[in-house]
Amino acid sequence: MKRILPPLNALRAFEAAGRLGSFKEAAAELHVTHGAVSQHVRLLEDWLGAPLFERHNRRVVLTVTAKAYLKQIGPLFEQLSQATARYGIPETVSRTLSVSAPATFTLRWLVPRLAKFNAEHLDVDVKVETSNESVESLKDIHDVVIRGGPDTFYGYSMQPFLTEERLPVCSPALLQRVPLRTPQDLRQHTLLHTASLPRLWPDWLAKAQVPALRPAAAVSFDHFYLTLQAAIDAMGIAMGPTALVSDDLATGRLVAPFAGLRLPSRSYCTYIPDAKSGDELVLAFRAWLEHEGMVSSGQTPS
After folding, report:
1. Each residue's pLDDT tens digit, 174-225
2. Could you give the strand order of the β-sheet that contains 263-264, starting from the edge strand earlier in sequence?
3. Bridge partners, 145 (sequence order)
């Protein structure tokens, strides 16, 4: 009996687009252009003589018939993948993991630890894009988005992985020149500010019961990582996020003269698109972040 088989490249494009709910994500997974996926889907629709997706501006939704079709063919692709792996045919294309994270977090926390994840996943290319845009404002779709939280966004699952507080930090060399024993001694020092976080010092000084304190000088930077670098270089005293200065405190590059006076802060969280909720690599990266977050916070991973 002659087999009735549709064009296999078109079928592969349909399966990926239907499973991920996005032509763009399907294109990224298949390493082709968005237009190629769209063309393959139209080819399959012409071959079947029926529409497979309802197109709503930038969204695509499976038709009722297409959902049933995808339910039948999806497991076949998984069986084909398992059979290929079983008989030793090597995977020729590396998997790319797309991550969006704030710049200071990326520079000071993620980059120093990322080599450990790479060593455990040699076949994965991690692509990190720095951004402070909110999750709902991102133009591109990423496998994992790291932002403050916890917040709720439609179409994303959220999981905290790293807690944080804010406290004054400075170079030990600075304290050798000008001792700092009580909050009032800050009058003899330069306070380092970050333009995007203008309330950090006023809020901390209020908590330290010296709200009207006037420092010897003040310097402001437009990026948090510049403020922290200035503190390391003994330029002054910065309000440091505990998560992002933990390595510096551990090595002695920075010290916390008032470790008991801290401001609460939001946690770092992962936001994963619902279409990626079952992706093993994405879940592995989330689990790795949670493990590293516990280690960074001084907790013992279970």
Report:
1. 999 999 999 999 999 999 999 989 999 999 999 999 999 999 999 999 989 9
2. 217-221, 190-194, 237-241, 165-169, 263-264
3. 100, 271
Q: Are residues 52 and 181 in the same domain?
A: no
Nearest to 196 by CA among 99, 100, 102: 102
The answer on 226 and 249 residing in a single domain is: yes
Contacts of residue 105, defined as CB under 8 A and 6 or more positions apart, other chains included, come to 146, 243, 244, 268
Please indicate, yes or no, if residue 201 is contained in any of the structural domains: yes
Domain count, the chain: 3
> Cα dist. 87→1, 44, 82, 124, 233 in Å?
28, 30, 9, 22, 57
pLDDT digit string (tens) for 38-79? Answer: 888 888 888 888 888 887 766 778 899 889 888 888 888 888
Backbone φ, ψ for residue 233 (5° rounding): -85, 15
Model confidence over 130-166: pLDDT tens digits? 999 999 888 888 999 999 999 999 889 999 999 999 9
Q: Judge if 50 and 196 occupy the same domain.
A: no
**What percentage of the chain exceeds 70 in pLDDT?**
95
Q: What is the pTM of this model?
A: 0.66
Asked whether residue 93 carries a pLDDT value surpassing 80, the answer given is no
Residue 301 lies inside a defined structural domain of this protein: no
- The answer to whether residues 141 and 289 belong to one domain is yes
Give the orientation angle of helix 23-30 with respect to helix 34-48, to 10 degrees. Answer: 110
Same domain for 28 and 77?
A: yes
CA–CA distances in Å: residue 137 to residues 102, 140, 141, 207, 274: 14, 9, 11, 34, 17
CATH of the domain at 45: 1.10.10.10
Domain with 251 in it: 165-264
Distance of CA 14 to the CA centre of its chain: 28
* Angle, CA of 50, 55 and 59, to the nearest 5°: 135
**Whether residues 240 and 173 fall in one domain:** yes
Backbone angles phi, psi at 75, to 5 degrees: -60, -25
